[in-house]
Amino acid sequence: MNWLQKLERKISRFAIHNLMYYIVALTGLVFILSMFFGSEFISRLYFFPAAIMRGEIWRVITFVFIPPSFSPIWIIFALYFYYMIGKTLEQQWGTARFNLYYLFGVAGTVVASLIAGTVGMPTYLNLSLFLAFAHLFPDFQVLLFLIIPVKMKYLAYLNWFFFGMTILTGSMSERVAAIVALANFFIFFYGDFTRGIKRRTSTNDTRTDFHRQVREFKRRK
């Protein structure tokens, strides 16, 4: 049992079932309130180190509920997509592991904001959820623009490209946020990657050994 599994067992009784439902519901509520109170209301939700030091502790949590869009049409699809991803990941992993993944993502965003001294947003946290879903269900199909069927693995390629460009050309705060989001992803999928490397290495060794035996057989003839 690795450290992640041990941590899962320790927090299992405190884990929030259907966590993504509450996140999506509160994000929707924030979107509705923003229509009445405007950008001033939203600005009080961002994670901002200087504001935290002034005692605005709520920002440690409220930045998670900042909507990904303020378009009434787009927000419906975005929140549904987030809920579908989160619910599926929880069903696949279990409640404790999904809670940990999200908690690590939140903590990573906070750390990135503190390091860069800039505003923290849930953008890269949400993108890391997408990467996790695409890794587990690469052939899951979605309708892009409600018309074009696209497999998740192809959208994941675009996501990886976005992360790469952010790390190469983004601002310091964007780079740090992208790196910690990817670190969260690799923490949870490290085993998959190492098993894949070992499997490919074993296959290559088997293939090399087979070709060697064929050559030796031909020489004996």
Automatic annotation (TrEMBL):
Organism: Alkalibacter saccharofermentans DSM 14828
Membrane topology, record value: Multi-pass membrane protein
Family annotation (InterPro entries): Rhomboid-like_sf
Keywords: Membrane, Transmembrane, Transmembrane helix
Membrane-crossing residue ranges in chain numbering: 20-37, 57-80, 100-121, 127-147, 154-170, 176-193
SUPFAM superfamilies: Rhomboid-like
UniProt-recorded name of the protein: Uncharacterized protein
Localization of this protein: Membrane
Gene3D superfamilies associated with the record: Rhomboid-like
GO cellular component terms listed in the entry, alphabetical order: membrane
